[in-house]
Amino acid sequence: GTFPLLVGSLRPYSTTLTNEMLASQGYIVAMVHLLYEPPYNQLEYMRSYPDQIFDFQIAMNHIIKTGKVAADQIGTFGFSGSGFAQVLWAMNDSRVRALADLESGIYMDGLWQSFSSSN
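The structure assignment produced for this chain is given below.
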C-alpha cells in the first residue's frame, strides 16, 4: 500500500522522538539534514531557506519514485526557525497538502526586513 509522507528539517535532538513516533503510526518521515553547525549567523541561515526548500523537494521526489507514497497525503512540519522554510515550501508547492509549524522565528530580528525587501 501507500503511506502519508512527512518532510522536515532534521534537528537530531529535538525531532528524533517526534520522527520515531510518527513513523510508528504509519507515516514515512523524511528529515533533511541541514548543513550548518551552531552557533550560526541568523541572517545567513534565513538566506538559506530557498536551498532548504530545494532539498525538501529533492527528498520528496526521490521518495515518491518508490511508489510507497500517497500523492495526496504529503505534509511538512517544523519547529521554530527550523520550521519557517517548511512554511515557505508549503506556500509554493501545491503537492504539500498539510503543514504543521510551531513557529516563533517569524518574530526574530531581521527576518521581516529580509523578506519584505524581496518578492
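Interim note for the steering committee: The mean pLDDT is 82. Residues 49-64 form the longest helix (16 residues).
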